[in-house]
Design brief:
Blueprint: H1 3-8, E1 10-14, E2 18-25, E3 39-45, H2 47-57, E4 61-65, H3 72-84, E5 87-89, E6 98-106, E7 112-119, H4 126-131, H5 133-137, E8 141-144, H6 150-162, E9 166-169, E10 187-188, H7 192-199, H8 206-218, E11 223-227, E12 233-236, E13 241-244, H9 258-271, H10 276-290, H11 303-319
Parallel strand pairs: 1-4, 1-8, 2-6, 4-5, 8-9, 9-10, 10-11
Antiparallel strand pairs: 2-3, 6-7, 11-12, 12-13
């Protein structure tokens, strides 16, 4: 194991792996219409796996829990995690294929539209979480999302809370949640759409995001982080409310991995001991680099690349 990763602390991620099938074109086709695309690519994806890759490249010691099918996409998953130094807890789900995602990327803006089929990872259960309780207990940070069944995500948060592990819950895609899950979240990281779905508060600006965050704090969340795309990210708790601007690192190529990059980077920074605001800056810088590259997991930068962006920003701020 990399000794630097040991020093930085362990991050356990529960979520799904899918193989991304990415199509680039000038626009989405209409129903019944066929159009010509400009490019196609296949690569590793899934919110949980992307977050695990982002955290590992950011220096964390990462354990990733999911389920795979016994197929070629599953082999891609295992090769990806081995290359990144990620410890995989990924049993085969008999009779299920490894998940896949269709990603449309607009050639002009880099914006995306995604269809995800979780496949084998859609069978994740509370029992899978119980099987990795020792991994969670040894971690500094636990991360999960909502592409796998809610029951598994909730059990992960419960186990982490029982062992005093910091919990980061990325409620994506947005689903109805009962109020009992919110007190399990040290950090909740919705984007604008997800925050609106959870609170009913439309978000058009940072003040709207603060109102939505207040509603989530009232439900028991420790700290709310609303990611705002080009508008940066809002850190909102009972004691502080800070808007961290986005880091603009070049021409936007593809935005599909940005949210996962932020969450994985934020978790890695927390695991090495950064406070929440410093971890926010780290996550925003990581996401800012990722959007300048194609793909989801392949777009994640290294720790050195993120540090260069942060150091350049600090020099600019000092000079001004």
């Amino acid at each position: 194991m990399n000794t630097a990763r040991q020093a930085n602390g362990r991050v356990v991620v529960l979520g799904i792996y899918v193989t991304d099938l990415t199509f680039r074109a000038q626009r989405m086709p209409l129903i019944g219409e066929t159009i010509a695309g400009s490019a196609f690519a296949m690569g590793p994806g899934g919110k949980g796996s992307n977050q695990a890759v982002a955290a590992a490249r950011a220096g964390a010691d990462v354990v990733f829990c999911t389920r795979l099918g016994n197929d070629a996409f599953g082999e891609i998953a295992r090769a990806t995690w081995a290359a990144e130094g990620i410890t995989a807890r990924a049993p085969v789900a008999d009779g299920h294929a490894t998940g896949a995602a269709h990603i449309f990327v607009d050639d002009t803006s880099g914006m995306n539209a995604i269809i995800v089929a979780a496949g084998a990872a859609g069978t994740l259960s509370a029992a899978d979480v119980d099987a990795i309780e020792a991994d969670i207990a040894a971690a500094r940070v636990f991360v999960t999302q909502l592409e796998q069944p809610l029951a598994a995500a909730r059990r992960g948060l419960e186990v982490a809370r029982r062992h005093g592990v910091v919990t980061v819950f990325n409620p994506a895609p947005a689903l109805p949640l009962d109020d009992g899950i919110f007190p399990l979240c040290d950090y909740l990281t919705p984007n604008e759409t997800e925050a609106t779905a959870l609170t009913g508060v439309p978000i058009a600006n940072p003040d709207d995001a603060r109102r939505a965050a207040d509603a989530l704090l009232a439900k028991g969340v420790g700290t709310v982080i609303v990611t705002l795309g080009e508008g940066g990210a809002l850190l909102h708790s009972a004691t502080q409310s800070v808007l961290v601007p986005a880091y603009h690192c070049g021409r936007v190529v593809e935005t599909a991995g940005a949210g996962d990059g932020f969450t994985g980077g934020f978790a890695a920074a927390l695991a090495r001991g950064d406070d929440a605001l410093a971890a926010m800056h780290f996550g925003c810088a990581l996401a800012g680099i990722s959007v300048t590259r194609a793909g989801t997991a392949p777009s994640m930068p290294t720790l050195a690349e993120v540090n260069r962006v942060l150091n350049a920003a600090a020099r600019t701020a000092h000079a001004s």
